[in-house]
Design brief:
Tyrosine-protein phosphatase RLPH2-like; about 325 residues; about 20% strand; globular; alpha/beta; 12 strands; about 25% helix
Length: about 325
């Protein structure tokens, strides 16, 4: 007897790691995704960009143009643009972050880290008086010139923001950037989400295809805080916070919080400068902000890994 309700084919989900101003890497990766995914599946895919579109690489302006163009070129796809810590800081400098919900001023966010102001050379130019901490750090002039962790020199600030300024035709640390960035880029940065949830995503596991909830967030969720409270704060874009751990954290957001292991939940992030898959914890970032490193994506449910450096033939 024919099944009148055959199982629906799982929707393809593409999770794309940190791009960091490298337009050619992004274009090559996108082309490779088109090559390796069935055209009908790709045309309706959910595409989740995991954040950090700016800084380090030379062409942030072109990257934002490309990302902005996708909904018109691929109208049946769903595009999710997560906010990374670099994007948050870029937006803070431009003044496009939502105001603190309690009516406080952004300068309240300076206090927690003011001992770092001199070393990090926080921005003191036009408009700094009520700028969120991360905007001041982003446009600052770092007094330490060599990043010992990455083995390279800082590009202007602790965020390596100089290439972003230069991609808009202004020198690093210049308030002229506020006028040079077009309105559509400001809107893009203002509209970035801090977290995205999907209720029914399929993923290939050793036990077969598993249906899960998926949570996408740039760095991860803190393991020792109530998940529901974290999600509420992230959805509200609470800019009273000096440093948003879910966008900027490291060790404290690496693991899936214990309470999320009770029901199958995929947690996918970029941010960490490495590619790591352990169970349902997916970290998709091969350090694409460094010139010689690839930008990577993972495709669900197949778990196929695609990189800009792959040589695929259509």
């Amino acid at each position: 007897m024919e099944d009148k309700n055959p199982p629906t084919k799982p929707r393809v989900v593409c999770c794309i790691g940190d791009i960091h101003g490298y337009i050619t890497k992004l274009q090559n990766l996108w082309s490779n995704l088109e090559s390796c995914i069935d055209p009908s599946d790709f045309s309706t895919a959910l595409i989740i960009f995991l954040g950090d579109y700016c800084d380090r690489g030379p062409e942030t302006h072109k990257v934002l143009n490309f990302l902005n163009s996708l909904p018109l070129k691929y109208p049946k796809q769903t595009h999710v643009y997560l906010c990374g810590n670099h994007d948050f800081a870029f937006g803070a400098f431009l003044g496009v972050l939502p105001s603190p919900v309690d009516g406080s001023e952004f300068k309240e966010t300076w206090k927690e880290y003011e001992m770092n102001e001199e070393r990090e050379g926080w921005y003191k130019g036009e408009g700094f008086e009520n700028m969120h901490l991360q905007g001041r750090r982003w446009a600052g002039n770092h007094t330490v010139k060599f990043n010992t962790i990455k083995g390279i020199e800082y590009k202007g600030s602790i965020y390596d923001a100089a290439p972003t300024f230069e991609s808009y035709g202004v020198p690093h640390g210049s308030a002229d950037l506020m006028k040079a960035v077009p309105d559509e880029h400001k809107k893009f940065l203002a509209d970035l989400v801090w977290i995205h949830e999907v209720d029914d995503v399929c993923i290939k596991t050793e036990e077969g295809i598993k249906r899960c909830k998926l949570i996408a967030v740039h760095a991860g969720l803190e393991k020792n805080k109530a998940v529901e409270e974290q999600i509420k704060t992230l959805k509200a874009k609470d800019t009273r916070i000096s440093k948003v751990e879910a966008l900027s954290g490291r060790k404290n957001v690496w693991e899936i919080p214990q309470e999320l292991t009770k029901t199958p939940t995929i947690v996918v992030s970029g941010h960490h400068g490495k590619f790591h898959i352990e169970g349902l914890r997916l970290v998709i970032d091969e350090g694409g902000g460094l010139e010689d490193n690839p930008v990577a994506a993972v495709v669900l449910p197949s778990m196929e890994v695609v990189r800009d450096t792959d040589r695929l033939v259509k």
